[in-house]
Amino acid sequence: MKRITTYLLACLMLSACIYPLDIQSEDNLQDILVVDGTIIIGAESTITLSRMLPLNNDGKGAFKYLTSRIEASVTLENDGGLSITKDNFPYVFDTSTADPEKSYRLTVVCAGKTYRTSWIKPMPAPKITSVDFSADDTNVFVKLSLDGTQNGLGYASAQYDAIWKFHADYVRILDYIPEDNAIVGIEDPDYTFYECWMKTIGRQQTIIDYANTGGIAKDYPLLFFPRTSNRNHYNYSILVKVRNLTEQEYRYWKQLSDTEGQASTLFSPEPANASSNLVCESDPSVKVFGYVGVSRMEYYIASIGSEYLIYGQPPRLTVIEPEDYYSYYSLGYYPITVTTGGFGWGPKSCFNCVSAGGTLQRPSFDLPKDY
Rounded to an integer, what distance in angstroms lies between the CA atom of residue 252 and that of residue 268? Predict the structure, then answer.
């Protein structure tokens, strides 16, 4: 039985992973097209095309998932006459004004073959009743509550983006003079790069089954992070995005989740047999993997301050002898004072929040126009 490797599910969720594949043989490998994405009524929609390739030349055994700029023609249409075709990567569609009362289908023409979904009626969105924060001695938890009694079928998918303000681990008050091989104090320290903002866009989705709880999901665990994380320095905001799933779509993602959990066993589900809603019309015997949903999205923004912050140990600095100062300086290390006295050497990211991945300008969430 074929097995899918552990990272396949994560890559499908992220829809942006690139895993270089080095195949030494030129034998006829049977690759499988992967079509993944959701048509979001009222927002922008992205379709990702990928290939799932067997690691063995006979097409059996484990698979490797490869995302690349696959050449294709992707058409989104509805039964009201709308038709939009994208012939180049990335396959992004403006569906901000798409009619929620129409049915939609996706057509992909790739490598001489035509792949298509059936007509799909958009799913309404569930209601997000709350997004709450709590903490224990170690972690901060974010929990989601939903009410799908009016619009849901008991299955949902949640994603989130996050924005937070943080500060660098150290303030730079020392400088190195290479001409003199000397360390001197900075009389007027520059705090410009001490505080920054960070934004992450979550691609991975959390699949929620609340069909057996009357359409209500209460305090569903969405994510957690350590109390020592820089997310707790000042304030942390999260944009939660939830859409309903049909039972077929839920079972598709559930099977992938089960596959991930069984990746090291002999009884892993065969990935190409997951309940995809695409078919190859050119040749029905050709396998296609992936799922395309059509949904409205519910949005909810929640924030927290620094009440759960616990300062952990800052990055350890390197103590070196004077004869090695210049060598470390040439490698991008700088002298940094520590609160316990003395100094050590560390990279620029220790005291420059931009070098640590932040931005000086506060970012914003990407929300639909009518939010």
Answer: 14
